[in-house]
Automatic annotation (TrEMBL):
<dbReference type="Pfam" id="PF01081">
    <property type="entry name" value="Aldolase"/>
</dbReference>
<keyword id="KW-0456">Lyase</keyword>
<keyword id="KW-0119">Carbohydrate metabolism</keyword>
<comment type="similarity">
    <text>Belongs to the KHG/KDPG aldolase family.</text>
</comment>
<comment type="pathway">
    <text>Carbohydrate acid metabolism.</text>
</comment>
<dbReference type="InterPro" id="IPR013785">
    <property type="entry name" value="Aldolase_TIM"/>
</dbReference>
<dbReference type="GO" id="GO:0008674">
    <property type="term" value="F:2-dehydro-3-deoxy-6-phosphogalactonate aldolase activity"/>
</dbReference>
<comment type="subunit">
    <text>Homotrimer.</text>
</comment>
<protein>
    <submittedName>
        <fullName>2-dehydro-3-deoxy-6-phosphogalactonate aldolase</fullName>
        <ecNumber>4.1.2.21</ecNumber>
    </submittedName>
</protein>
<dbReference type="InterPro" id="IPR000887">
    <property type="entry name" value="Aldlse_KDPG_KHG"/>
</dbReference>
Length: 209
C-alpha cells in the first residue's frame, strides 16, 4: 500500500536530473525535511545508480523509486537497483501490471476518469493527476465523487507551497513536487530550504483542516 508512506508527509520528491554523485546528500537533505518518498526519473543521468545509492543510504524507512518509467524492462531494472516504486507519466496497463508482478508500488499518470479506472483495474496503488496545470481542483472534486475513497490521488505539475490548499480541499491526498523542489545546479542548502517550505506548508494545511 502507498498510504503508509504518505502518512508522515504526503509529498513525493521528484528528483529529475539528479546525478549519482549528489544523490545521497540531496536525498538526506530532503528526508531531513520530512519527505519519505523519493523518485528519480529515468531521464536523469545514470538513474539506476542514483536509485541504488539512495535505497542503500536511506534504508527501509524511505520509499525510493523511479519516475518516467515507460517499459516493463525498465520496471525490472528499477527493481534490480533496489527501487520499490514505479511512477509513470501515463497509464500504460502493461507497465502497471509489470510493476505489480515485480512486487513494486505503482503510481501511473492519468488525465481522465477513463484512464484512472483502467489504471486501478490493472493494479495501480495510487493515481498521479498529470499534468495538474491542465486540470483543476474542480476536476479533481468531480473525480473524487466516483473514485474509490481509499485511492490516493496526487496532483503533479506546477505545485507550489501556496497553491496546495484548493487541491487538498478538492480531495488531493498529497502531491508530487518537481522543479519547485529540486533542479540540477541548485545548492544543497537551497534544496533543503525548499523541502522545508513544502513540508511546513503541508503541516499548516493539516493544522487548519
Amino acid at each position: 500500500m502507498l498510504t503508509p508512506w504518505l502518512k508522515p508527509l504526503p509529498l513525493v520528491a521528484i528528483l529529475r536530473g539528479l546525478a549519482p554523485g549528489e544523490a545521497v546528500a540531496t536525498g538526506r537533505a530532503i528526508v531531513d525535511a520530512g519527505f519519505r518518498v523519493l523518485e528519480v526519473p529515468l531521464n536523469s543521468p545514470q538513474p539506476f545508480d542514483s536509485i541504488a545509492l539512495l535505497a542503500d543510504a536511506l534504508g527501509s524507512d524511505v520509499l525510493v523509486g523511479a519516475g518516467t518509467v515507460m517499459t516493463p524492462a525498465q520496471v525490472e531494472a528499477v527493481a534490480n537497483a533496489g527501487g520499490r516504486l514505479i511512477v509513470m507519466p501515463h497509464a500504460d496497463t502493461t507497465v502497471i501490471r509489470a510493476a505489480k508482478a515485480a512486487g513494486l508500488l505503482c503510481v501511473p499518470g492519468v488525465a481522465t476518469p477513463t484512464e484512472a479506472f483502467a489504471a486501478l483495474a490493472a493494479g495501480a496503488d495510487g493515481l498521479k493527476l498529470f499534468p495538474a496545470e491542465q486540470s483543476s481542483p474542480a476536476v479533481l472534486k468531480a473525480w473524487r465523487a466516483v473514485l474509490p475513497r481509499e485511492v490516493p490521488v496526487l496532483p503533479v505539475g506546477g505545485i507550489a507551497p501556496d497553491s496546495m490548499a484548493p487541491w487538498v480541499a478538492a480531495g488531493a491526498a498529497g502531491f508530487g513536487i518537481g522543479s519547485a523542489l529540486y533542479a540540477p545546479g541548485r545548492t544543497l542548502d537551497d534544496t533543503a530550504q525548499r523541502a522545508s517550505a513544502f513540508a511546513q506548508a503541508w503541516h499548516s494545511l493539516e493544522t487548519h483542516a
